Amino acid sequence: MKTLLLAVSGVMVCVLSGVVFPLLVAAEPVDFEIPEQSLASALAEFAAKTDLQVLYSGELTRGQRTRGISGRYEPEEALGHLLKESGLEYRFTDHHTITLERAPVVPLPPGAPAPQSQEVPAHPAPATSPNSGKPLKLPEILVKDVKERGYTADDSSTAMRLSIPIQETPRSIEVVTRQVLDDQKVLRVQDALRNVSGASMPSSQGGRAGDFMIRGFRSDQSVFKNGFREDSTFGARASRDTANLESIEVIKGPPSYLYGRADPGGVINQITKSPLRERYSAVDLTVGSYNLYRPSVDLGGPLNDSKTLTYRFNGVYESSQSFREGVRIDRIFLAPTIGWELGPRTTLRFEAEYLHDRSPIDRGIVAVGSGPADIPIGRFLGDPTRRGEINQGKATLIFRHQFNEAWAWRTGFRSAVASEKYDSLESWFLLADNRTLELAAFRIPQTVQSHYLQNELHGHFSTGPIGHRLLLGVELGREVQKSTVLTDSSCAFLGTCAALNTIDILNPTYSFFNNPLSTINDSSQTNGIIGLYAGDQIDLLDNLHLNFGGRFDIFKQHLTNRPDAFDPTDREVEETHRAFSPSVGLTYEPLKTVALFANYTRSFMPQSPGARSSQGTLFDPTRGRQYEGGIKFQASDGRLRSTIALFDIVKTNVLTSEIGAGGAFTGFSIATGEQRSRGVEFDVAGRILPGWDVIANYAYIDARITKDNTFVENSRLDNVPYHQGSIWTQYFLQEGRLKGLGAGIGMYAQGQRNGIKLVQPTAFGQEPFNLAGFVRMDAAVYYRKQNIFNRTNLLASVNIYNLLDQRYFAGAQDFREIVYPGMPLTVIGSLKFEFY
Description:
Helix content: under 10%
Organism: Nitrospira tepida
Protein name: Ferrichrome-iron receptor
Distance between the termini: 24 Å
GO molecular function: siderophore uptake transmembrane transporter activity; signaling receptor activity
Shape: globular
Structural class: mainly beta
Subcellular location: Cell outer membrane
Number of strands: 49
Region (Disordered): 104-136
Number of helices: 6
Largest sheet: 22 strands, antiparallel, barrel
């Protein structure tokens, strides 16, 4: 039996098998905005609004869809509208439980007309009791069950900025649900990507926001939150926390058709938790290896009697050390959200975040010879007592208005501000003896800010027999970065110091002196963005869906370099780029459980404003194009889904070195480079049997440099293995005295990778090295008890990472002196109480 959580209000008497159940309630209509979708997912949305327990077999909703509902309804009538034309009926089995079952087939009398479907009225009459004709008043129910969300999602809002069934969308889409995050005890977004084929984070930028990798291409500019850009430059300086996330959606391939500038690998969109109409609170204490201490709270509920004002608050304090010697991390994360129902069809949502992070810049260890140095992975090659500090805040306002059943309006505004005090003594160059490492001091005060305004018109209508889900939008944006780079790494050239600090990687001593610092860069960058975008999901037939869209961007860059130790002049560069990025795809469902899809998509990404040609001009953006095709499978009840995708991506206008007369490098760049990535991916997630869940993936990726003057053509891109994949599965006992006891086990593996790109003999560069392949095993044990106390659930877990204590490396960052080791054996325990 499949269980959903629903709620109702009113007074009624239900007769079932001769037993009478009086249901006492207060009757409060509820505002519903549930679009057309699968019946199972519509019931899930209904559950989030109302909190009544409904039982039904998954076979009853197999392949079923509902027209949805919009407006203010008594909950029971809303349920009736959702079930219309489904052939299902409901009955009360106790004071707070409804069971769905198939309606009996009653033969029509001879000559009687066939029943006709009716549209849901815009303003329905109040529900009435079939016996009394009076308005129904059903009781408000406090939910006592642990909310199990599962490992799959029916819909995704990322691929088209609209909620569209994943099975019908002609893109490769993977969703990491909250249940997966909880079961694996994922605290940072980068750790969640092990559950997505072809995705990883090989470079953490010294322990900060990091560079993600999708389908062989770096994608640090392709991270979003609720559809707003949250890249690692203007949006997020510190590593991203999962405390307020409901899910993480990854759309593979170039995403510029709706999201503007982006790398061609894909887009990561973080979906945050919503305000709640019913009271809920949870406290969680997480402790673990290396003195991890992380208490957190999750609170929500109504702020007034009519429940038109609701809220959600997530808060975290984290203090920990690390397997990296001397490292200490302190973090505070606060995320309040307020929801306001201004009317039956109008909502306003305010969401804020504040993150404080204090931690060292950690560049890992170094490579010696053909691989990482044979030293302990915990050895810190620098000064761990110098800790950087990041403070970042975000505020988001989203206004929605439903004009009628066909048209809706969305206005969203997001403002983000961050300041970073970068203070580090870190690896610079390894000397010829392969043990003496020069250390450079950096102090980089910087501030970044970004502001985006989005206006969108959403349409859901038909032209004859053809259905449309239309999106028209415009986005305005402004981004500003100001930074000053002070360092002693150039002091020898300037004659201001005798030598840099050094450390012996084989026998380190942590005694350092302070060199005078010189300003080598004092700059500011301002970007202005105008984006016009449109998309349409067209239902040509019930089983044939055409998806197309495109975006036209105007991107203006303005860079100012003020006088520094090397250049005494002011310099300003300004450039405006225009780009159109189309996308078209087709999905065909020969069966409700099978979908064939294909698409063609393009992307663009402006070049770094610091790179200039010999003529002093900026470069045209890089462009990406993808051909993708595949097949999606889903079990009849939608609880198990899988995707197989093949792709071919080419990235052009990549910067490479300019070669002058006689074959010498000029020191300038030209945009003639090209990179290509081809491969196949497989993902599966869901429930195999009651209590048994799995999420697994595999990717084969051949990512290569196809044109370049600096790097070896046809060589593999760095940090991209041919093979990578993972599997996580868990099982909970369903019956008996040990019900609620569970265990999970998983594996994460990557093949051999290039640590850095291979440099041509004539180019200046470093000797190549490799990162060996690895297999990491994880495990967990759980105990979950409903109603351990009155209105209280218990959730306890112990998660073990790298169970076999394998030595492995997550990736490298462009230099032999920056190699990031993976965590050794680590144990984390969590005790959580939920209150309703």
